[in-house]
Write a structure and sequence with these properties.
Protein name: PAX-interacting protein 1
Shape: flat
Keywords: DNA damage, Nucleus
Subcellular location: Nucleus
CATH class: Alpha Beta
Domain BRCT: 7-75
Radius of gyration: 12 Å
Pfam family, one: BRCT_2
Strand order of the largest sheet: 2-1-3
Number of domains: 1
Structural class: alpha/beta
Length: 77
């Protein structure tokens, strides 16, 4: 069963297990991994427009600085 079909993921580089492992897990479950960090605007477009696929952020404590803009605007990881 592919539970992540039609979902996009942005995975920060310091994640554990490794980015390559997380990418394989997400893709095996039917999700897609974004190669570049999405802008706040793009995240909001996908959140508000139900016809667009959801974007999910996966991060870790060491990479929180990469998500600072999202936190400042109320988007969690």
């Amino acid at each position: 069963m592919k539970n992540l079909i039609a979902k996009y993921f942005y995975i920060t580089p310091g994640i554990c297990p490794s980015l390559a492992t997380m990418k394989a897990i997400v893709e095996c479950a039917g999700g897609r991994v974004l190669s570049r960090q999405p802008s706040f605007r793009r995240l909001m477009e996908h959140k508000q427009n139900k016809s667009l696929s959801e974007i999910i952020l996966i991060s870790c404590e060491n990479d929180l600085h990469l998500c600072r803009e999202y936190f400042a605007r109320g988007i969690g990881t």
